[in-house]
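Pair request: fold both.
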Amino acid sequence: MRHPVKHRAIFAGLLAITSLLCVAPAFAHPDMAVTARVLFDIRAGRLTGIAQLLSFDAATSARLLARVDSDRDGALDPEEADALTTEITTSLGTHGFFTEIRIADRSVALAAPVAADTSMQSGHIVLRMAFAVPQPAMLQDGARLELMLRDRDLTLAFRFARVQPLILRGDQGRCSTAIAPKPDAAYFGGLVTPDVAVLTCR
């Protein structure tokens, strides 16, 4: 999926740190493990965009590559990368991208990404997606945003990256981020407690 020029900037913060996602974490039960980074794009005090960088575990990455690697060279050429991007984003989209967002205690759903691409990094498939916020949300006076990645069936196990899991752009030093466990959102029979990304702005 090619992304328009005006949306390429949303990837800038993520592109600079993609190489840090060298090894995805191991999980005992899920079929697929996904390490995530999230970028919040803030303009004039409003959240206008969210970008996600998702790195799949090595075994899942090998399976995904095999699905599109028509020339069997073990690499993603542009056509193969586009095909894989379309396949993954379409699959994730049927589940709301497994992304749950609340701003000032109001739910916000993500529409289809305005830009997306896929690459191979150190044996891991890395998917980048940029989403426009349909009604830019004002972030000030302690407004709180919560973002959670959760597959209730635990086919996909999401985990925020240990290094730079959350990235702010354009906040002019007015916002801060944190990652915290959310026990009241436990799922899979209460066995899994997800982490939530929290963004607050003054």
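--- second member of the pair ---
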Amino acid sequence: MSSSTAARDLLTDAFGRIGEGARNVIDGLTPTELSQRLTPKANTIAWLVWHLARVQDSHVSDAAGTDQIWTSAGWQKRFGLPFDASATGYGQSSDDVGQVNVDAELLGGYVAAVVEETLAYVERLTADDLARVVDDSWDPPVTLGVRLMSVIGDDLKHLGQAEYIRGLI
């Protein structure tokens, strides 16, 4: 097995786990449960899952040189959120978090579409692709492999938070 095949297999497994975990955490929840806050300013399951999918969509599409499916596939219109099309949730206020009121079917559909796009992209990657610098504003510069691992880490943290909230509600 080549190193690029092994890397693709690991990335595929990680992004697949994120997609499966996100679907499991929202499965069977009502919009009210998805939007429930443990404290008045806490994140909600809906916002956490939307945010992790938006970050993945944003970063992967940027690396692939493609449009985000949030806008290109009409998800932004279906969600009808009062945010700029480029919003991923980063830096949003507590009031913004409260604006993400959606049902599990819509949210799960977007997550599935993002994961499908991500896995298709990962399948095409080579070792040279993973070593390509995608952000030279850091020291050391960030490679595609590091960027994808960063997305995985961020997504898993937010997924764990959503799972914790689900366990409490």
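Observation on the second member. The mean pLDDT is 96.
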